[in-house]
Amino acid sequence: MITYIIRRILYAFPILLGVNILTFILFFIINTPDDMARMHLGQKHVQQDAITQWKVNHGYDKPLFINSEQTGLQQLTDTIFFNKSLSLFMFNFGNSDAGRDISYDIQQRMQPSLALAVPTLLVGLLVNITFALLLVFFRASYIDIVGVILCIILMSISALFYIIGGQYIIGKLFHLVPISGYHEGLSSIKFLVLPVIIGVISGIGSGTRWYRTLFLEEINKDYVRTARAKGLSEARVLFLHVLKNAMIPILTGVVIILPLLFMGSLLMESFFAIPGLGSYTIDAINQQDFAIVRAMVFLGSVLYVLGLLLTDISYTLVDPRVKL
């Protein structure tokens, strides 16, 4: 197990390096530091002296890959690529183009993102699996047909409809919870109830259909017929046998999503004014603060690779036949 984990971690470094290089090309070669200076200075006719000074202030005045003015190892270390990209491997995110400490911002905004994403994931998982088992229990009946039709309808509606409709009906019409905003501590619950409910409802259609498909594949296998032949009720077969043996694809979907919880929900946080990492990324894109965007892209890549590793390890916990 330990050897496998170490090997997978070593495999991750070339992947992250490739992502890092591709991101660097997008942000520094296609979109040069001069272009970034002009965008931030916001003037039609920017003097070259102002561009040069902006690059010096933000550390973009050095060569991209090789600094021929230096000697020895400093030819590689005294470059934009080393200071702005390779430093990300040490989780040194540096400062944003506006001068803020990116690491501090991430630490402050991670908690609101998790406070929104974790309940949405857990409640949504429970609701989707319960509905899917209910449809499988009444398979080929009117309940199953109506349930599938409702799932398709829910899948066909845009997430923006749920957000705007939920804000209007629950927040503005009935005044049950605030429409937007966020406070620390227990007072944050009243601000999170509405986005969590909307997040769960918007995912019922696709989630229920996916789990229903998984369970329908399992009920036709030999171990299910054996369980029925032993006299077990259909409910016990579904909840004790089918659900257990469908855990691998369920874990695949859940564990891969777990790292993305730290990145926040772009739409939900923006519409509900929740100061999480999702709204942090959106604000950085709107303000053209590419230092933050680079940091979030790299952090998302690291978390996704860790998610894949956790997925492989979790297989051994639910299925003893899987060996690493």
Write out key terms for the chains shown.
324 residues; mainly alpha; MetI-like fold
Overall residue-averaged pLDDT value:
85
Name of the CATH superfamily of the largest domain: MetI-like
- DSSP helical segment count: 15
Poorly predicted runs of 5 or more residues? none
In helices, the fraction of residues equals over 70%
Instruction: Fill in the CATH topology of the largest domain.
Output: MetI-like fold
Oligomer: single chain
Judged by helices, strands and strand pairing, the structural class is mainly alpha
User: End-to-end span in angstroms?
Assistant: 6 Å
Shape: globular
Kindly provide the name of the CATH class of the largest domain. Answer: Mainly Alpha
**Got a strand count?**
0
Specify the CATH architecture of the largest domain: Orthogonal Bundle
Work out the strand percent.
Answer: under 5%
Radius of gyration from the alpha-carbon trace, in angstroms: 25 Å
Compressed to H and E, one letter per element, the order equals HHHHHHHHHHHHHHH
Domain module count: 2
**How can the largest sheet be summarized?**
none
